[in-house]
Design a protein that fits this description.
It contains 14 helices and 30 strands. The protein is of the alpha+beta class. It is globular, with a radius of gyration of 26 Å. It holds the Pfam family PMI_typeI_C.
């Protein structure tokens, strides 16, 4: 991509000086700090001019946005055919036809090798990862200095028909160790904190219930109490809160590990017993329920229907049951247990695909690793509703450096400006149609399914067409790293 000079007002003498300094940069310029796992030769050199930092990108116009062709994941838990937002966006983005019999689970936007994005014409198409390595200025100096010449975040849309696995994502130290030990399972050495923003009603399990709720589980779900054992059950039920439950973590870890490590025959028998009991108690007799099941009991029956005699049916009682309305979000830190149950969402995370699973999945499970890595914090997850930047844009900012997400809901015939930022962004049009312009470039028509990589320092002008309001999301590096 050509770059356009912007420093038209610089005096000729200064221009000559800059030119000379640039030509000597390979010899005299200090190198940008090289983060771990980054190829040092890929780092761009920086220049120092008259006592303050200077870089070639500051002397040139920003690289123009790139239209992306993105990847889809057809995991079994995805919604099928036209029922899937992922399928519809993938069809419009790639031109591929939707197969009504296939699940369309995740739409990936970014540079991860498990689902890369591409740019360029059919004859000259390259991965976004390769293009960024060849044009590191697109990331901005601070991003390159902190993470190297690759995107630090991965952007997704999920369409969930059946529950995902009970899982957790490792922190950086554990991710490096797991990647060294089993690189075919744990694909990269990075951590994977993440955030989900609901597009529809979105249900999930996340984090451990409180000690009082755990007592209720052991009293109200005799199948779990039977597995845990009478002594352990009675000990927990008789615990008293004195300045907080000082041994809560050890208690939760012991009971949860015992459950997750139980043999398959024991789990099969107890899940079957649980199902039969709940179905019997939920029968209608003369138009009156014997007992109306709780939401968590209804969830257990749903999970049993999807995964049969899986330990995750019982494990679900240990985790908070969260329901998000459209526009609400939750974030999940490293080593926290969770499982998405149903609905559609925007998801953003650190650029990783590391997942440690232990239930509700036919995939590889690693119970010892999962049970040893969890924090065992007992708290209901914080629900984010975003901060409104202007009448049309709401920002969701998790406590992680790698990413933040903006939601833009632009009514018909309205316009909005995304101010330049010193880092990269990815934009996706979820619904609607309009015009997009950067700087002095010509306007470009945009519509549902369009995805753009926007290099650092671009100002984006967006306008919605008549009768075509736009629903757009932008992912980018967390603004706090720019000071």
């Amino acid at each position: 991509m050509p770059r356009r000079p912007i420093a038209q007002g610089i005096q000729s003498a200064s221009t000559a000086l800059v030119s000379n300094l640039c030509s000597l940069s390979a010899l005299k310029a200090p190198r940008t700090p090289t983060p771990a796992f980054v190829d040092e030769e890929s780092q761009p050199a920086s220049l120092l001019l008259i006592g303050f930092p200077f870089s070639p990108e500051a002397m040139e116009a920003p690289l123009r946005p790139l239209r992306l062709r993105c990847s889809v994941q057809n995991y079994d838990w995805g919604r099928r055919g036209e029922d899937s937002t992922v399928a519809r966006l993938f069809e419009r983005n790639s031109g591929a036809e939707i197969d009504p019999s296939r699940p369309y689970a995740e739409f990936w936007m970014g540079t991860h090798e498990s689902g890369p994005s591409f740019t360029g014409s059919d004859s000259e198409e390259v991965t976004l990862k390769k293009w960024i390595r060849e044009n590191p200025g697109a990331l901005g100096d601070k991003v390159v200095a902190k993470w190297g010449t690759d995107l630090p975040f991965l952007f997704k849309i999920l369409s969930v028909a059946s529950a995902l696995s009970i899982q957790a994502h490792p922190d950086k130290e554990l991710a490096r160790m797991l990647h060294r030990m089993r690189p075919n399972v744990y694909k990269d050495p990075n951590h994977k904190p993440e955030m989900a923003i609901a597009l529809t009603e979105f249900k999930a399990l996340c984090g451990f219930v409180s000690m009082e709720e755990l007592k209720d589980v052991l009293i109200g779900v005799p199948e779990i109490a039977e597995l845990v054992g009478n002594d352990e059950t009675n000990k927990i039920i008789c615990m008293r809160e004195l300045n907080g439950y000082v041994n809560a973590k050890a208690v939760i870890q012991s009971v949860f590990t015992k459950l997750m490590s139980a043999n398959k025959d024991a789990i099969l028998a107890l899940v079957s017993k649980l199902k039969n009991r709940l179905e019997a108690e939920n029968k209608v007799n003369w138009s009156i329920y014997i007992r109306r099941l709780s939401e968590r009991e209804q969830l257990a029956l749903l999970l049993e229907k999807q995964y049969h005699a899986d330990v995750g049916v019982l494990a679900a009682f240990f985790l908070n049951y969260v329901k998000l309305s459209p526009g609400e979000a939750l974030y999940i830190g490293p080593n926290e247990p969770h499982a998405y149950i149903s609905g559609e969402c925007i998801e953003c995370m650190a650029a990783s695909d590391n997942v440690v699973r232990a239930g509700l999945t036919p995939k590889y499970i690693d119970v010892p690793t999962l049970c040893s890595m969890l924090t065992y914090k007992q708290a209901f997850p914080q629900i984010l509703r975003g901060i409104q930047l202007n009448p049309f844009i709401t920002r969701y900012t998790p406590p992680f450096d790698e990413f933040e997400v903006d939601c833009c809901i632009l009514p018909s015939k309205e316009s909005v400006v995304f101010s330049p930022i010193p880092g990269p962004s990815i934009f996706i049009i979820v619904t609607g149609e309009g015009r997009l312009q950067t700087g002095s470039t010509d306007e470009e028509r945009v519509m549902e399914g369009d995805v753009y990589f926007v290099p650092a320092h671009n100002e984006i002008h967006l306008s919605a067409a008549p009768d075509k309001p736009i629903h757009l999301y932008r992912s980018g590096v967390n603004s706090r790293i720019f000071g």
